[in-house]
Design goal:
Distance between the termini: 32 Å
Strand content: 15-25%
Order of helices and strands: HHHHHEEEEEEHHHHHEHEEE
Shape: elongated
Number of strands: 10
Largest sheet: 6 strands, mixed
């Protein structure tokens, strides 16, 4: 999408929202303040990803699926999102609500089910920051709304919390809508491959299996932690006996978030690992049948992503990195 097309869509969306909800200077003020704190939404996405992973606690439990959480853990998710967002963005405590953002009281509500935000009676008349994340669809959204009684469903639960009527969700001013949630690789990988990973024996062998079977996809720190189930899980990925050493004879490179590793991934046309992430891929020396395939120069040779019919050859050594990387 071209920048001016995106701007036109955003402008049209804003006009439609103001027509539905009416002008609200305080909401606009909070909206602009949050956008200034996190222009791309990357911070919000990271908090939502980390909070889900915190609940799963894979290092201890081996869990990777939201459905395996206990009911009490799912209920606790909203509180953790509220706490973790406040820590990330240093929102002040509110007077009557959870936060004070740009001098305005704002309540925070999270739901794994879209539209399932539980609104307490005391939030009526106040702004609410609504967050939603779905690990199965790898999507998340965050928006703002001022709560009005007539926009809420009637309910019968004991604490009198209500939900927003579907017909009035157009009153939500979205900061980000249906954005990509960092992938829960264990949840979305092929089931047979996942079974093979967890059947591999020791934590080191499980990680070796993971990076060999899940290639060309970003693998986050929590996935590594869940598979290794060891305190020194990140050490298990590196060289000197880790995954990089074990898989190099099989032609597999494992790139981290360091600048020179990201550059190698970019030259090969791979996803770029963010902080705490890795991307693995099998490579072979470039030959005539590879044509104009993307390539990178390592150890004095040109390398390309291996085709399925390419014979296995040892991978080159990755360049060392510095703390500045």
């Amino acid at each position: 999408m071209l920048p001016f097309e995106e701007a036109d869509i955003k402008a049209a969306t804003s006009v439609a929202w103001h027509a539905a909800a009416g002008p609200d200077p305080e909401l606009d003020k909070v909206y602009e303040h949050i956008k200034a704190l996190d222009p791309t939404g990357r911070g919000f996405a990271r908090v939502l990803r980390d909070t889900i992973d915190q609940l799963l606690n894979g290092e201890v439990t081996g869990r990777y699926d939201w459905k395996t959480l206990f009911k009490t853990e799912k209920t606790h998710a909203g509180t953790l999102v509220e706490i973790n967002l406040q820590r990330e963005f240093r929102f002040a405590d509110g007077d009557a609500m959870d936060y004070q953002i740009a001098g305005v009281d704002v309540d925070c509500k999270y739901s794994q089910q879209f539209g399932g935000w539980m609104i307490p009676p005391e939030a009526v008349g106040h702004l609410c920051l609504l967050a939603w994340a779905d690990d199965y669809r790898s999507l998340w959204s965050v928006g703002l709304i001022r709560i009005h009684n007539e926009w809420l469903n009637t309910g019968s639960n004991r604490d009198l919390k209500l939900t927003i009527k579907a017909d009035h969700r157009d009153k939500i001013q979205w900061l980000w809508r249906d954005e990509e949630l960092p992938e829960n690789v264990l949840l979305h990988m092929d089931a047979a491959d996942r079974d093979a990973v967890f059947a591999a024996g020791s934590g080191q062998r499980r990680l070796n299996e993971l990076f060999q079977r899940v290639q060309k996809r970003r693998i986050g720190r929590n996935v590594v932690r869940t598979v290794a189930q060891q305190k020194d899980y990140m050490k298990r990925v590196r060289g000197n006996g880790g995954c990089r050493s074990a898989l190099r004879p099989k032609g597999v490179l494992i790139m981290g978030h360091y600048a020179n590793h990201r550059e190698i991934a970019a030259q090969l046309g791979l996803p770029l690992p963010e902080e705490g992430e890795f991307v693995s891929a099998r490579v072979v020396p470039a030959r005539s049948h590879h044509g104009d395939a993307a390539r990178v120069s390592l150890d004095g040779r040109e390398w390309v992503l291996a085709r399925p019919d390419d014979a296995v050859e040892p991978a080159p050594a990755l360049p060392s990195h510095t703390k500045q990387d």
